């Protein structure tokens, strides 16, 4: 696993700074355009909720991006969070392969 020293930016923060602010979109306006609740979008933008595949598809359609962009950002963020907040996984011993 590649180790990153800096925590990745949550995709909700990127959505807000790189898309919503430049376009002058409020949470309410974007939520309506995406067909989701304001509460759901607010949780994402305020980094309390994750980007789901459904939200990734909606964002990609509305913002002319790819769903993979949003899902990859979320995956990187989530993986970093788990790797740095839970150390139980470090106790797992690697499985040795058979010598041929």
Automatic annotation (TrEMBL):
InterPro entries given in the database record: Cro/C1-type_HTH, Lambda_DNA-bd_dom_sf, Toxin_antidote_HigA
Gene3D superfamilies: lambda repressor-like DNA-binding domains
Record-linked SMART domains: HTH_XRE
Protein name: Transcriptional regulator
Keyword annotations from UniProtKB, A to Z: DNA-binding
GO MF terms, alphabetically ordered: DNA binding
PANTHER family: ANTITOXIN HIGA-1 (PTHR36924:SF1)
């Amino acid at each position: 696993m590649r180790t990153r020293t800096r925590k990745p930016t949550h995709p909700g923060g990127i959505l807000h700074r790189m898309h919503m602010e430049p376009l002058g979109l409020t949470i309410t306006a974007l939520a309506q355009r995406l067909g989701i609740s304001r509460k759901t979008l607010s949780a994402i933008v305020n980094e309390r909720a994750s980007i789901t595949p459904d939200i990734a598809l909606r964002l990609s359609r509305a913002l002319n991006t790819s769903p993979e962009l949003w899902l990859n950002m979320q995956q990187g963020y989530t993986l970093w969070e788990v790797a740095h907040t839970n150390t139980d996984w470090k106790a797992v011993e690697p499985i040795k392969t058979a010598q041929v």
